[in-house]
Specification:
Blueprint lengths: L11 H8 L5 H9 L4 E2 L2 E2 L12 E2 L7 H8 L9 E4 L3 E6 L15 H8 L7 E2 L8 E7 L2 H12 L4 E9 L8 E3 L2 E5 L12 E5 L11 E10 L9 E8 L6 H8 L13 H9 L7 E9 L6 E5 L4 H7 L10
Parallel strand pairs: 7-14
Antiparallel strand pairs: 1-2, 1-3, 4-5, 5-7, 6-7, 8-13, 8-14, 9-12, 10-11, 12-13, 14-15
Length: 325
Amino acid sequence: MTVDEESAGQRLDNFLIRQLKGVPKTHVYRIIRSGEVRVNKGRAAADTRVATGDLIRLPPVRISEKVAEKAEKPAPAREFPVLMEDEHLVAIDKPAGVAVHGGSGVSFGVIEQMRRARPGAKFLELVHRLDRETSGILLLARKRSALTNLQDQFRERETGKTYLALVQGTWPANKKVIDTPLHKYVQAGPEGTPGAGERRVKVVARDDPDGMRAITLVKVAAVIPAQAGIQGVFSLLEVTIKTGRTHQIRVHLASQGHPIAGDDKYGDFELNKALQKQGLKRMYLHAWRLQFDHPATGERIELLAALPPELKKFADHAPLAPTPV
């Protein structure tokens, strides 16, 4: 295979992992170490940077049967509402219930569907991720240079990511910052037990060696009165994350005694049942605003994604209409 312009600059191991989808990473590293992978007829290390026009020779590799089956049944082509698009990137408004990529029991996600819908696209990659049940702004890169630039901005916390979340109860006005470490773990329990084997996250003490620092900023957008058949008020929050930990917003808000409405992992299950009867059949978490520097021009971009109808109807009950929506 020949390295194209969009792939130039990647490490050899990362380039091959992307090209050889379905081949275990351990096998990719094994054939590199053994010298079976040749770059321009010479041996190369895993950290070798490939360049445009490099000729890469590979030994025969076997793709897993599971991946082969997926190839026979490709993801259906699907476009999503576009908030912004140019030659460098595309920002979409992802609906809830759609994974951003295949894996972990999901055959395909947004990226596979969009690639299928755009067969002429030379390059299309996820810049970041959203939980399957979270709706809102999702950024994809159309060029390798844009992907690198944008991911650097996310990693260096140069982006602004603000979500809208509906939580149970009145959020305390003095609680504006949550700075509590998080730890990922696997839910214990006998096989077949609900939730057993699932990935979960919990808050831990500051001195916990397994804790990862997580910072969440909270602002009350509106207080929403009790819904019919449901006791207590709700708070609509603008939540800005300074770190991008797994399930960060969900766990941080729940740890303060204010779980997100409709959250099936960290929420109030009895409340969720009552909300379902009122029409809220998903988690009330929406990636509302995203700020970043354009990877080519450097211009500061701000994107907004309005609340979807199934969430907006709950916010419409607010005595003070929230400015975000």
